[in-house]
Amino acid sequence: MDFSLFLLTAAVLALAPGPSTLLVLSHALSGDRRRPLSLMAGALLGNLLLIVVTVLGLSAVLLASQTGFMLLRWIGAAYLIWLGIAYWRGLGTTAPAVGNQAQSIQALRHRALVSQAFLTSVTNPKGLLFYFAFLPQFAPAGGSGTFLLLGGSYLTLFMAALALYALAGHRLAALVVNPKIQLWKNRLTGGLLIGAGLLLLRPERN
Fold it and tell me: How far apart are CA 98 and CA 176, in angstroms?
């Protein structure tokens, strides 16, 4: 196993823009520090689940079933499109809560963000292919310990990448405080999510 090559490739993939990084950046631009943290927690849980599935060997079963993987791809595409429409309409963002129930409302909203990031991670076919097809190539004869090492290394890099996107969003938040800019930021986020979902629906070429 060439661990240095794996780390280099994993770092590039972790930094590459995707649905999870897009969500973190979008909410970081709101200036609320808790929203990106909620999304990062959801992404962490989702990736941990994928690592467990890989270690248990269930990934081989999924990849062996073309119908099953295609169905999962369609589910992922449908979720991204639905999420994109929600952001386009402003339903995927959160406004400051006021009143006596502000804290409980905010808690519910942050739990919703955790769920968003979790579902985005476990239904993203590109992420599934990384764990199920790419990662095993670096440990073809490795045991569960090797998979845990590789998966844990990528997850560490991925969380670091999300933190960088969140930091960049916080630094730029002051530039997008205008409600009109926030509106177009939400629509851009929604449009990109819809586009990502539509790309997943493209028929595969032989």
Answer: 22
Q: Which tokens belong to 123?
A: 């239904």
Using an 8 Å Cβ cutoff, are 63 and 69 in contact? yes
Calpha distance 118→107 (Å, rounded): 17
CA dihedral 92, 95, 99, 104 (to 10 degrees): 40
pTM to 2 decimal places:
0.77
Of 89, 104, 72, 80, give the one whose Cα is nearest residue 23.
Answer: 80
pLDDT tens digit string along 141-171?
556 777 888 889 999 999 999 999 999 988 8
What are 58's two structure tokens? 């269930």
Burial 62-79 (b: 16+ CB within 10 A, else e): eeeeeeebeebbeebbeb
- pLDDT given for residue 204 in this prediction: 57
**Among positive and negative, which fits the CA dihedral 166, 169, 173, 179?**
negative
Helices (H), the chain: 3-15, 19-28, 34-55, 58-64, 66-88, 102-122, 125-129, 135-137, 144-172, 179-200
- Residue the block writes with tokens 């199920």: 132
Total residues found in the chain within this entry? 206
